[in-house]
């Protein structure tokens, strides 16, 4: 990928390396962190080096009567206006510049106190555009935004403080082929989604490869989100218990089960720490009154925690489960957690997934089996 803003825009910090060099750099970084626990070569899952990002947010920079997209600068002390962004996928690319033209051509209704625009798109050409304002949105905005929906063939939402205006839908529906099976995912504007669809598929298929090695028992998942891993992996286990703290993500996950005719998953709205307390019998939850936790026989657990990694209680809980699939967005906390997990388990497989080309960020995964 080439971009005229390399070296100025802070969203791509590895602009001075070729994509092959970036992968080697990330592989070396994670290999060093995991070396005390895994001696084999990491499996590397690459990304297209452009047109890979299905979720993006841009500031709106006002200069006189004109609006431009802007990103934080590379020095992290200001912003830079941009005229291109080759990392976003085509459904965003073909709409974002037309949107900017319409905003600038507006008499002021669309641009007045607009401070950011968010895009959420799919590989099937759906696109949800959220426009964020420092003012209350009125009927005049709604009228212009509805016309814009038709012109852009997109879904548009408006947000301001304590106000959300949904003109059609507040979600898109992605369809991915995973392990030769089609899966549909409803993705909400305010919910977490994986930003790189092609690498997301590779990451899920890597997890499926590990699940196939197990081939028995029930499956436990923490931080399940909208069911990104849950739905495909459910095909390889008897029953699934998946937990997530976000109400919106649980809503999406339940809808995604319906869309994909999956019936062996039970979702529970619990934080990771609460899941541990419930499964260890330390605390009862009304949210679990219809779930017989004691009936599950977990052979495998998947955890996909935030950057902070796992809490001590969750590590203690999963240390009693035969197989662990750990997906990490922070190799430093993964390495920290492995110091404890490898007291009971050994790492059989390890991989990196390049969700974010041209940045230092790297996702990684390990598959562990009880010693």
From TrEMBL:
Keywords: Methyltransferase, S-adenosyl-L-methionine, Transferase, tRNA processing. GO terms for molecular function: tRNA (uracil(54)-C5)-methyltransferase activity, S-adenosyl methionine-dependent. Transmembrane segments: none annotated. S-adenosyl-L-methionine binds at residues 194, 223, 244, 304. CDD domains: AdoMet_MTases. The active site is at residue 329. The keyword Methyltransferase applies. The keyword Membrane does not apply. Belongs to the class I-like SAM-binding methyltransferase superfamily. RNA M5U methyltransferase family. HAMAP family: RNA_methyltr_TrmA. This is tRNA (Uridine(54)-C5)-methyltransferase TrmA.
């Amino acid at each position: 990928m080439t971009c005229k803003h390399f070296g100025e825009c802070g969203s791509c910090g590895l602009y001075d390396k070729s994509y092959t060099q970036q992968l080697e750099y990330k592989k070396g970084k994670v290999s060093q962190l995991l070396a005390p626990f895994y001696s084999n070569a990491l499996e590397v899952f690459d990304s297209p080096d452009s047109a890979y990002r299905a979720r993006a947010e841009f500031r709106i920079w006002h200069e006189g009567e004109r609006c431009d997209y802007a990103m934080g600068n590379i020095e992290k002390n200001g912003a830079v206006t941009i005229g291109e962004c080759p990392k976003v996928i085509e459904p965003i690319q073909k709409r974002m510049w037309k949107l900017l033209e319409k905003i600038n051509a507006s008499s002021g209704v669309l641009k007045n106190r607009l401070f950011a625009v968010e895009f959420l798109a799919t590989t099937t050409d759906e696109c949800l555009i959220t426009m964020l304002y420092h003012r209350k949105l009125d009927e005049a905005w709604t009228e212009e935004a509805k016309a814009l929906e038709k012109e852009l063939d997109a879904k548009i939402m408006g947000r301001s403080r304590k106000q959300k205006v949904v003109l059609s839908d507040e979600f898109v529906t992605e369809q991915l082929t995973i392990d030769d099976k089609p899966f549909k995912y409803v993705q909400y504007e305010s919910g977490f989604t994986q930003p790189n669809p092609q690498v997301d598929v590779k990451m899920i298929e890597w997890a499926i490869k590990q699940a196939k090695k197990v081939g028995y028992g029930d499956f436990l998942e923490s931080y399940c989100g909208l069911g990104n891993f849950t739905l495909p992996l459910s095909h390889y286990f008897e029953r699934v218990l998946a937990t997530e703290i976000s109400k919106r993500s649980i809503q999406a996950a339940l809808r995604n089960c319906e869309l994909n005719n999956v019936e062996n998953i039970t979702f529970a709205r619990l934080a990771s720490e609460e899941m541990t307390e419930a499964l260890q019998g330390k605390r009862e939850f009304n949210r679990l009154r219809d779930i017989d936790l004691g009936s599950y026989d977990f052979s495998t657990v998947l955890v996909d925690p935030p950057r902070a990694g796992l809490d001590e209680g969750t590590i203690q809980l999963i240390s009693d489960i035969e197989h662990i699939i750990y997906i990490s967005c922070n190799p430093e906390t993964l390495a920290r957690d492995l110091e404890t997990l490898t007291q009971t388990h050994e790492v059989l497989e390890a991989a990196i997934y390049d969700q974010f080309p041209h940045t230092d960020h790297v996702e990684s995964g390990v598959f562990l089996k009880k010693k």
